[in-house]
Structure formats: C-alpha cells, structure tokens
Design a protein that fits this description.
Largest sheet: 9 strands, mixed
Structural class: alpha+beta
Subunit structure: Homodimer.
Keywords: Hydrolase, Manganese, Metal-binding, Purine metabolism, Signal
CATH topology of the largest domain: Aminopeptidase
CATH superfamily of the largest domain: Zn peptidases
CATH architecture of the largest domain: 3-Layer(aba) Sandwich
Radius of gyration: 25 Å
Number of strands: 17
CATH class of the largest domain: Alpha Beta
Number of domains: 3
Number of helices: 14
Cofactor: Mn(2+)
GO molecular function: hydrolase activity, acting on carbon-nitrogen (but not peptide) bonds, in linear amidines; metal ion binding
Shape: globular
Organism: Coptis chinensis
Helix content: 25-40%
Amino acid sequence: MAVTYLNFFLLIIITSYISEVLAQNDEDPTIKTMEHFSGYSNHDSPSCTSSSFSVDTDSLQLQIDELSTFSDTPAPSVTRILYSDKDVLARRYVKNLMGLAGLSIREDAVGNIFGRWDGYDLELSAVASGSHIDAIPYSGKYDGVVGVLGAIEAINVLRRFGFKPKRSLEVILFTSEEPTRFGISCLGSRLLAGSEALANALKGTVDGQNVSFFDAARSAGYAQDQEHLSSVFLKKGSYSAFLELHIEQGPILEEEGTSVGIVTAIAAPASIKVDFEGNGGHAGAVLMPHRNDAGLAAAELALAVEKHVLESGSVDTVGTVGILELHPGAINSIPSKSHLEIGMLLVLDEYAFPAKTRKVKVLEFRIVNQDPPSPSDESIIKAMEDRRKELNLTYKFMISRAYHDSLFMARISPMGMIFIPCYKGYSHKPEEYASIEDIANGVKVLASTLAKLSMK
C-alpha cells in the first residue's frame, strides 16, 4: 500500500500518539508504527484483514499457462525433465517472476532456487514456502507449479496489502522432486536436509543415457565442483517454518466440495526394485510344465502387491507397480528376465513367493528408499485452520499419501501443507486441472499464514 502525503502525516500523528508506549520497548518506532497502521504486530494476528486479500487471478493463470509451454511434449501435456533445456528456460522464467516480486535471488550447487523478501528483523530465521516445477513425461501443468507460482503470488498479495514481515519470507523452487531422470525423488530437498548418503551416491549416478548427474548439472550451470555438494546442506532451524501449497492429487476435496485440505502428515512410500531370472525359450516349442517364466513371476508379484495393500486394513495404504520390463520382449519368446519397480506405503515381504512357485531366481530385491513419514507441526496446523476460518472457507484435515518436498523440509523446520481440489483427482497426466478460484483460495490461506508466522 503506497503511503500518500496524507497517510504520511497520519503516520506522524499516530507515531506521536503512541510514542510513550514505544519508548517502553526497544523496537524501531517506525516499524512499530507500520505494524499498528497495517493491522499487524508481534501480538496481533492478521485476523481482521486477511479476508480482504486480493489475488491477481488473471496474472497467476497466465503464469501457469506460460510456464507450461516450456515442455518437451505438446500441449496439453507437460514434460520437463531435470537439467534439460526446457527445465533451464522454465527456471529462468520463475527467477524473472521472483525478481518482479522484489525478491533477492540465490541458487545453490544443485539448482535449488531461493527468492527472499527481507523482514525487518534479520537476526530471526525466515519463514519459507515453495515446491517444484519439474514434470514427469506427459503430465500436467499444476503439480508443484501451484506451490511455486502460488508462493510468489502470496508475496505479491502481502506487498499489495502493505504488509511488512518481521521474519524474512522466502520462496523456494526445489530441484527435481520427481525421480524421472536419476531415479531419486525430492533430490533437492533431500540434500537441503543434509543427506550425506545422497551426496556420495550422486558421484556415481547416471541417467538412462549414461549421462552422469554432474555432467547434466554442469550443462545447466550447476555443480561446478562435485566435492562440495555439502554446501547445499541446511542446518536444522534454518527456517522457523515451511509451508507448501499443492493440488491434492486425489479426488476427496472435489468430491466433498471442500475448499481446503489441511495436511496433518505426509506418508513416505518405499520404492522397491525387483529382478527375476528364469529360462527363456521358444514360446511355441517349450511345454507349459517345463517353463521357468520370469514374466509370470513378475505378474504374480504385481498381484501380490495389490493383495498386500487391500488386506492391510487401511484405506490410505496403496501400492503400484509403475515399471514392468520383460526380456527379450518378443511375442514368441518366453521372458527370461523381468524387472519391476514398486511404490508402496508398506514394505512388501512376499517377493520370494513367485520365485518359488515359478522356479526362477531373485537377482535383486532392493529397497531404493524407505523414508519415515512426517507429521505436520501442530502450531502451523492451527495457524492454517485459523486463517481459513477468517476466509470463511470449508476445510478438512487429511494426510498426504504422496511424497512432497515438505517431507524433507520437516527435518529442517516445522512444516505444514495446504491442499486444494483438483479435477477428479487427476495428476501426472495431461487432464490435471485446478480452477483458478481454488488456487486463489489456497494462495489466500498461504499468504495469511505466512504473515502470521512471520510476525512470531
């Protein structure tokens, strides 16, 4: 809110009026006056004013649409792979938006991007928000993007309102939340959380075209020295709070007509790789009793995954065989080898069953990652709940069954997530969609919660 000459004189009057009170503490009188004038202070929440927050929906939708054009596949699909040319262009686009929002920008060795709005007490740890913009092949334009562009718009909302944060506010674009290129989910946030194991593993990591992680990173302008990935690590307490705005990626909010989901915990799926080896042969010549079919062993394991989760007794337990490859892959050849990659919320312990029944070997059973789940911080949950009440939005408490960067940011600071509805729960496909009205509701809750937390 621009301060006109009239408002300037009003500030002088207010300053004079409360000067006796201000003299009793050590805070800057100008800052204290600004807090009073804007309706925010160390002691008061933005409860009386957040309902008047204004989101520039036209601009935000345009940004979402423009960002989706940085894709290696045609619209309406989006494909944006880590360190690809389109990824580099998309990063440049977001950095430009951060600059237009008045944020100071820095990037770390793997390409995590930070845009900061300095608060007036620089000794305090910042409050952060953000998500990712990488996209798996032939996916949609809202996953992750809403959390990045929405966070930048939340900063713009607060600036337009005339708010001045006490704690700095920071927007983070995380590198490679999706495991598409190197098979590692939440790569950037894992490193921020201090994963020495990942930093060491990346030294020998290559993609499907045998391009090393460091060669790919250097091609995008990052990772100039592979011995210093530890420079990415953040100390616990680097932020006082972290919030992530995200589409639900499930149907619950839309089906119930609920505006906002307040995430109470993030589940942590295990990623498992399994390789079977049997005996190949001619599909017409080898009789059925004599076969050791690695393909059927893989099929039995896939069915065992489904059985395992259905019998778990929990509606939130899920399992998916997302990759199933057969060798040699010919219609007239019995598969001699098979490879599966499984994502589950429970670790599967029945992989040996098809190996025994099909008389094939288990060449590999490897748990790629099995991270512990993370609860959201109770004080952040309460702050989000209070903010949505001010905005008169319906809500429900829910868990996130999908990975998010918030899972790893919770190792650095208190964490919370805001879900908004998405069409039929679609995600990771071109039909993925969230209305700009629902996105705006999420941005308002985010902006108001950031304001509240920044004044603590």
